[in-house]
Amino acid sequence: MNTGVGARGGSGRARAGADVGRCRALLVAGDLPHAAVHLGRALFHDPGLASAYTALDEIVVAAGSSEAARELFKGDGTTVFPGNAAATIALIAEEGRVPEAVELLASVVAVHPERPWAAAPWFSPELGGSLPLPAVGGAVSAVWGAVEDPAPPEVAAALAPWLALAREAAARPDCDAGGLRAFSALARRLGAHQEAVTWCLRAEEREVQADGRATQLTLILLGSAHRGAGQPERAIEVWKRAVALAPGNADVLLDLADITLDQGDVAQSLRWAERAVAAGPSAADPTGAKYRAAVLAARYRAGRKTRRGGDTAQLTTLIDLAVAHPEVGYLRTCVERACEDGMWLRIVPPPTEAVCSAYGYLTGIEESHSLVTSVTATVTALEAPTPTALCRARFPAPTTTLSRWPQPDPRLPVRTDFGPPLWSYRGTEPVAAAAPPSPAAVALVHQVAGGVWAEPLIAYDRAAAFAELDCADLLGLLAHMPPPRDPNWRELQREHPLYWERFAQVWVCVGILHHRAEEPWAGSTRRTLLLRLLFGPDDWTVDAAAFALCVAAWRDPEQRAEIAEAIARRYQEAAAALGKRPTGLHDPLAALVLICPGIDPEVARRARRNLRAAPWTRPARALFGKRPRRKSG
Q: Fewest beta carbons within 10 Å, which of 21, 197, 212, 561?
């Protein structure tokens, strides 16, 4: 049954009840077709509403038969509104064709799994104990095939009756291996991990009893069940047995590449991924893109474990694959794996400036109910204007003594042909060229910058919300970033003061990539803004802009040469300060050089040499969530 959505509407018992009332009024008036329309809407809003099924019985009486009533819910003959489908299925069940009704209801669930279709009064989990097993297994397969692993909580709640149906069927002595596999796949998605493992083990036992060995499909699903249950070593052992049965199954090899990479065994993951590539394309991946992506991710991760670092060309090729095949979600998962724990790829370098420590110290004093009324500081060198200005805005402007003027002077921009710098100086005091942002811009940055990205393409997608801001607000946020509101960020600020402000600046710079996106890049406002920031005086906004430019280069190969040249030039300026004065810009900018597509290899070698003795300070890992697994059977 094709159950394409023919109308939109929210769910709710009140709306369903109102539609039932309209249905009955139209029945009194003799308008059966429109009465059926409202009944279908009622069942879409609330599939379990008892009065809707009473009204359905009234339609049957008015139409003269159940078959005639079903004609009223057919729609245009090509697509059926899900609520109409639910009405038709209820009539089929009342006609005694319950196995067919269960399978048809599963097809409706596959379209809208978040709705409680199994709340229909004719449906009962006890049916799993009496219906033909092929009907139950087929229905459950349709359900789990449309659900993510794991299912979102609202979907899991709606599908709970289907899991109960599976339990009834799995308990039958005549339940075969095929049914047990289907029930296991559903249980895994709904969080019933032990049942998922148990049912697959029973499927394996029955196959061994019948044929002397388990099928590869059962072993694949058993491995998935072990993985879902948090038993990776058992999953690996089972999947190895599955590979032994059919060495050319690239998808199983890919599962092994995934799980061993998750376990941190990069070398083993690479071997499995290379075997998947050698096995060749499959029906599920005719281009072989998934297998190539797995190899690239493992190779890049392996390179990052060495002192040499990852191969930028491998990362770039991997991202190119993901951009070229947006329909293959697994490619983005591979990008996430390659980027895991990577500086800039996943983690924005935390602040290292002394003024940030001072900010944290002064904040601690005020949290102890002691108001800071004056600050005196002696500094050996100027630090980035962003944290300096944030500290001055939060606490009384300090009386600052500079022990010596730094050279090369970090206050001077590298280039001004893209516009005046965001920061200038009045002596040692940084002065912003932008006014504070609007309240709407402040609300937006809190909304977007509340979470981290798993890989740069995700950052680009999420930063699209900044497209609604004008230049004044974008620059205003960069120069006057508000403090965090999220409790997790506030807690992290205790360890890394002003980290959120730095992190949010990066979000804004990535958001600039969406500013006036219709303009061709070469003369665009977004390009000009980012290059203006990149070539400004030493500041957090320099490397934030550099990261955004890297994202632009990943997304558009035509811009790579220009962007790589610009980042290389800015890095050379930052590197010139090494050994002459303290610089907080060099290390994070050098880390960006090592991931910038198309960068001059000699510039990358220089950055790598300069970074070898520079240990990174990493933020608390608790803030960064787990990446999703590849969806498997």
A: 212
